[in-house]
């Protein structure tokens, strides 16, 4: 089943089709392997060994529900309760549509591999290993809009698409966090529900009479779920980055960054901005405006995502996951 493109790293989108440019220009990519100390060392001597991945710990036997956001769980149950969603989605989406979506993406992008943009390939391979899953294909596509999205086609290997402007904006660690975010969608099977809900909504609009009313109700449920799914995938990004400031920096740069000022941005100041937003929207009027502001958005506001990931990084649940990963790490892993 083909999934609707997940504009996972963009700012909150309203209901409009995804657009992408068709030309491509190469980007200069660099990657440096991380290193960790282990074993016995003499005084004033550090024993270091290079590792093939950017983070030290792999989450063995990681299940999607280990990091799924509570709102994602709740809203997924709501989607599953919609009668006939699965069957209608399959009926509305045929093999021709799948083929169009597949060819549109792979025909206008560059496939990343060991022999093509190998450093990006390494980042994806590492992120998938940390999340205990198979790495999808990765494509780089020319676009001035910093974004990344995931597509899953029935019977074919899923793939992730990175826009060139995102590659230019982010550091290597931040790019890997983006890839981990996209892997989170695949790990949690988000693509299936995105496809069914979007197709059902489009189909309902064509039904005479009350079709538009049904579609509007489904859209509200869909966008509520989309926002919660993004919070889950931000957690997947943290599991790979293992540093909340890396994930928050991605969100900050997407909110107001550019390559020329990226080194001047301050993560701590952005978190304080998030706290000020919470204070400003804490009144009854503020809550009303906040809900109205986000109701038709596919993504939570960047400051709210930053606050959420900061809080989860200090939660018992995250610390337990990290502890479990550390305990299962062997000398071969490091």
From TrEMBL:
Under InterPro entries, the record lists: Peptidase_M48
Q: Which GO terms describe its molecular function?
A: metal ion binding; metalloendopeptidase activity
Stretches assigned to the Peptidase M48 domain: 118-312
Cofactor remark: Binds 1 zinc ion per subunit.
- Reported cofactor(s): Zn(2+)
Query: Which keywords accompany this UniProt record?
Result: Hydrolase, Metal-binding, Metalloprotease, Protease, Zinc
What's the domain of life for this entry? Answer: Eukaryota
A Gene Ontology biological process annotation? proteolysis
UniProt similarity note? Belongs to the peptidase M48 family.
Q: What is this protein called?
A: Peptidase M48 domain-containing protein
């Amino acid at each position: 089943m083909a999934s609707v493109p997940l504009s996972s790293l963009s700012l909150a989108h309203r209901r409009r089709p995804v657009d992408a440019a068709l030309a491509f220009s190469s980007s200069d990519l660099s990657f440096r392997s991380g290193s960790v100390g282990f074993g016995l060392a003499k005084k004033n001597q550090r024993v270091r060994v290079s590792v093939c991945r950017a983070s030290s710990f792999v989450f063995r036997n990681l299940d999607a529900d280990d990091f799924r956001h509570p709102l994602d769980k709740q809203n997924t149950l709501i989607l599953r309760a919609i009668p006939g969603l699965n069957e209608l989605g399959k009926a509305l989406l045929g093999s021709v549509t799948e083929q169009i979506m597949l060819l549109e993406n792979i025909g206008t992008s560059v496939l990343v591999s060991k022999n093509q943009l190998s450093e990006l390939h390494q980042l994806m391979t590492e992120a998938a290993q940390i999340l205990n899953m198979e790495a999808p294909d990765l494509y780089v596509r020319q676009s001035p809009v910093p974004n990344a999205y995931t597509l899953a086609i029935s019977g074919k290997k899923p793939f992730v698409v990175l826009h060139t402007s995102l590659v230019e904006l982010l550091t290597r660690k931040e790019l890997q966090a983006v890839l981990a975010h996209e892997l989170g969608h695949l790990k949690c099977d988000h693509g299936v529900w995105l496809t069914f809900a979007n197709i059902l909504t489009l189909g309902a609009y064509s039904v005479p009479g009350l079709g538009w009313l049904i579609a509007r109700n489904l859209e509200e449920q869909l966008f509520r779920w989309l926002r919660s799914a993004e919070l889950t995938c931000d957690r997947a990004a943290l599991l790979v980055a293992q540093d909340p400031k890396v994930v928050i920096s991605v969100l900050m740069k997407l909110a107001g960054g550019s390559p020329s000022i990226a080194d001047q941005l301050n993560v701590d100041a952005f978190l304080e901005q998030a706290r000020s937003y919470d204070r400003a929207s804490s009144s009854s009027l503020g809550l009303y405006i906040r809900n109205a502001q986000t109701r038709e958005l596919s993504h939570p506001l960047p400051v709210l995502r930053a606050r959420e990931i900061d809080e989860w990084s200090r939660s018992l649940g995250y610390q337990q996951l990290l502890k479990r990963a550390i305990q299962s790490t062997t000398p071969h892993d490091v």
